[in-house]
User: Fold these one by one.
Assistant:
Number 1:
Amino acid sequence: MADDSKPVYLRLREIIAASILDGAFSDGDMLPSVRAFAAQQGANPLTVAKAYQSFQDDGLVVVKRGVGMFVADGATRRLRVAEREHFLETVWPPVAAQIRRLGLRVEELDAQKA
């Protein structure tokens, strides 16, 4: 979910993370260049560089000088673990509380898939 109150580089980071988790990029795959991703997202290249740097700081991407940035080995698994933890600790509790308040049943939620 997009959160306009978040800094742009964090929103870009979420887009990249979702792409990795969705399988658009696998471990070892090259990420788009800073300029290409900036153009695609309509963002400032410096802001994209900051988002990429945050992944590099977390060890989720590696830089091959003169070649580009690549998804690090094991990054998909580590990212999935971190995202699950964030979801269960931060996102799910208010959602679960709202489900209880509204008296919704799992069957009703499943019916919404169609």
Number 2:
Amino acid sequence: MSTASHTCETDPVDPPPRRCPDLDVRDLEQRTRLMRILTRLIAVSDLGSRDIARRAGLPMQKISDLLAGRLEQLTLDELRSLRRTIDPELTSS
């Protein structure tokens, strides 16, 4: 039988609480919704991925990230810019 006891009782430091977790959830929901719309628009578009990236002023890697579902690599502003580039209904109204 061991008589050794655990003498180091340090608790891991908890990260500070988030100020408004709802904002992160809302942002993620908006980006997810836009990602789904954009992938459908890209699929039916006559434009190629390189042309879309060039017109939106984004690197080609961002389009690759979008099509691969790597949502964390794209900001809401980048997604909105892509939508304005691809969606003809948004630019005509």
Number 3:
Amino acid sequence: MKKGIIKLSSLTTGKSAVIIEFEKDDLHIKLMEMGCVPGETVKIEKIAPLGDPISIMVAGYNLSLRKTEADHIWVEEI
């Protein structure tokens, strides 16, 4: 069931989504090198108590992102 396009930073723990696109800046190249590519499924594993950083599962491994980095990733919740 599709839920709409939102920022990755808006997802809560345990939710999964498919990466749609990035805000175009220098950060999107770094994110793609880490496995965050359009079409890839991501799952929110943990969120730190103050909301930063966010631990996600992507491309078969855990990756920690700052909330400001997750703000640059647009996803579609599944």
